Structures
1.
Amino acid sequence: MDIYNRRGGGLLITKKILLFCDPGIDDSLAIMYTMMDPEIELVGIVTGYGNVTKDQATANAAYLVQLAGRKDIPIIPGASNPIQQEEVTFYPEIHGEEGIGPIQPPGNMQYQIYPFDTIRLIIERYSNELIIVDTGRSTTLATAFTLFPDQIKMVHSFYVMGGAFFVPGNVTALAEANFFGDPTSSNYVLKFAHNLTITPLNVTQFAIITPDIVDVVSKNKKNVYAFMIAPVFEYYYEFYKKSIPGISGAPIHDLLTIILVKNPAIVDFIYYDANVVEDKEARGLSYIDLRPTSETGKTAIATKLHYEAFIDEFSKVMLPE
Ligand code: BDR
Ligand code: CA
């Protein structure tokens, strides 16, 4: 479907994205980006536990779309916990108590939430044009796979932020947070998603925004989120300064995944079938079979980031003229 290009006047082909997420600072930046990019049409947000509780993630998503004046985007609450256990570990030291660093949605904010079946309706409506991006724990997306198998087949493609292939994890020595959160659901998605691209830590850890870029964005009068960019970044960067000494900025894992939908050339890929370890000891460890005799597989796994191209894309959207 085409929409009229608000910037230049010509016709634009937009990417229709249904975003599964757990905002969270980098998820929040991903939502901001989709709101600001005229080449992306965000057709729904499905929220789940992860960085914060499901309810907080839902409120954060609603707040961010409302700031952009978009009350029309359906917000669909998903899973409250992983399938292995009820307890969930949240990460206030990275994302803040409420998920957007020091920023909180107004206490009296009104917003509508939509039932889970809305996912089925969205897929049927956009069908082969729909791209599903998952930047949260995999529980909610795996649930959609089990509930709507016929509709899932209609989806054009899937993009998942998760994993760390033969590089250190971030939540444990071995595992990246999204695949650690619910490795069984991650495995399910990795096995059954067609046309699947993964952005693991191998690339997202290098998708860093630095204080100088943040300074410019926060002064941009046309960016509706400019008022919160600096405090949110500072909160996030404090954590990364402690966990990766010497790092020059903070990695925006989830936003890189969104950028890739439009610009796959900003990374290099290898093609394998990806797996996640579900057992206790190595829970969440992601791996591929790299033995000389192994066959390549169906999943595009991003392995190297072209940093300048990434920053160009980030700036193009976050610094509107
Ligand atoms: C992923 O885990 C979450 O904490 C972030 O939002 C991102 O999706 C990075 O490992
Ligand atoms: Ca996330």
2.
Amino acid sequence: MSGKLNIQSRLAVLEPETDMLIKQRRPWDLPESQVTDEADFLNRRQIIAAGGGLLAAGALGFNARAQTDPSAGLYPAARNTAYTITRDLTPEEVNSTYNNFYEFGSSKSISKASQALQTRPWEITIDGEVEAEMTLGIDDLLKKVTLEERLYRLRCVEAWSMTIPWTGFPLSKLLEIAKPLSSAKYVQMQTFENPKVARGQLAVWYPWPYTEALTIEEAANDLAFMVTGAYGKPAAKQFGAPIRLAVPWKYGFKSVKSIVRFSFLKERPTTFWEEINAGEYGFWANVNPKFDHPRWSQATERVLGKNERIPTVIFNGYGEQVADLYSGKTERKYFM
Ligand code: MTE
């Protein structure tokens, strides 16, 4: 169904200068220090403060992107004040230069590499247990929805966090468009696959393409949000343009980027990180400070853009909206 590339075709796009296969760090090599140590991040902040920010902004083409994107006129969208936060927003230049997007490499500095991603044309396929399978372009999808801005927290499983002004539409609206059958119990979301552009996809030890999934009940929850923009304009490529998920009560790895396929399934699929290491990255991944990651504590989080560490809150503070989804389910598996 996913049309995964085999190893031969993946290697066929390797060019002589490519050494990513050797250099790329595998997730199970992640040292504890990388999770808790702020030095790396602070250094980057100092460089930005010293003037590198201008350079970075130019290289990322913040303004150019908004001018050339055919959906630029839809932004900024009205803020839905039902979704606000009590924390400061993470500055755009911080968020734009500290990302997880393994398709472009396993470091946090993939913003430049991700600019190679072409986000138009962008076709999205809806298939599986639905009334009628369909493929539609992102701009056709945008015509069927009303965009709104929501301020959301994001808590990464690596124990750092941000607060982001996302723009998009509820995932429940996509369910309305997709018309899943009653046999559909899960929705799987799949990222593009193109190792010619996304050189991280040359790393054959990862089960590309990146996929994530939610139960239909989770997908129908008001908080589950399809993101198409951020900071009042179309989403930057490093954020997962042109369309990504935001499920803020779950660890960030559930929020899959640059989606090309929504598959409605009867059975629970294995997700990207679960396939890599099910003991560390489970299907549910609900934020919980009481259940540590096997290699580090989840009790606190480092706030990006600020020199502080704050306590992590169950369901990342969204318990009121989502706890019902898991009522009676207190086992560890719902939190990993
Ligand atoms: N989606 C894809 N396709 N590839 C990825 O590597 N990383 C995930 C998630 N979605 C990832 C992805 C992880 S681990 C996190 S924490 C968030 O994206 C980070 O989103 P951000 O870079 O916008 O902060």
